[in-house]
Amino acid sequence: MTISRRIAFATLAAPLALGLAACGDSAEGELTSSEPIEQIAAPDGQAWTDMVQVTDADGYLMGNPDAPLKLIEYGSLTCGACANFAQTGADTLKEQYVSTGVVSFELRNQVHNAFDLTLAALVRCSAPESFHPLADQVWKNFDGVMGQMQGAQAQLANLADVPDEQRFVAIADAAGFLDFFAARGISRDQAAACLADTEEVMAIGERSEQQSEELGVDATPTFILNGRVLEERSWEDLEAVLQTAGARPAEG
Q1: What is the gyration radius of the CA atoms in the chain, in angstroms?
Q2: For 14, which of 36, 103, 149, 198 is 20 to 30 Å away at the CA?
Q3: Residues 119, 138: contact at Cβ < 8 Å?
């Protein structure tokens, strides 16, 4: 049985973790030092941070697709360490580094549980440009979102009895996700329509499992820079790696 089907039929009885430690084991990697890389201008009238495209891996790449430094994050929307990164470093990464055209930032979901899978579907339930802001909203309101999820677990004890097309809608409704996203531009009807496409929702979990196995990603957040898995988890450490690789903050 694939991860998405295991998640879809789970009782959701297991308690959810709220800690800020990395959600899994550690990864390792090294990066050689490089000279500073000159900034790369965005196309006329555009900013790199406004440019988002969906990659072949179903990640959402922000910035210059030809950036010399390609940063990927595998993040779980129910992971406290990922929330901590979003709260302390994601804005700086985008505004000071992605904006220069030297660094691109691709966010990929790693799915840990049924709530996670439901959230991963909801942050996709609009234009690609909305993916990063919606994911950041989940992480920046992490305590409140997690609190509602904790309260929803008892309501979802008989989730396996719910028809497939209603299962993720039931999770979202019980956990308060429909109201949360409605306040951020995704109507309840729009969200329900996205979540009713059970095949597509479960495909997110299947891609997560396949990619995690192929790349050896067993913790979140995990960052990959130019194909190299890094051991750094915090923004402070990650920024040092980017600068070693030649990135510099935007001027002025």
Answers
A1: 18
A2: 198
A3: yes
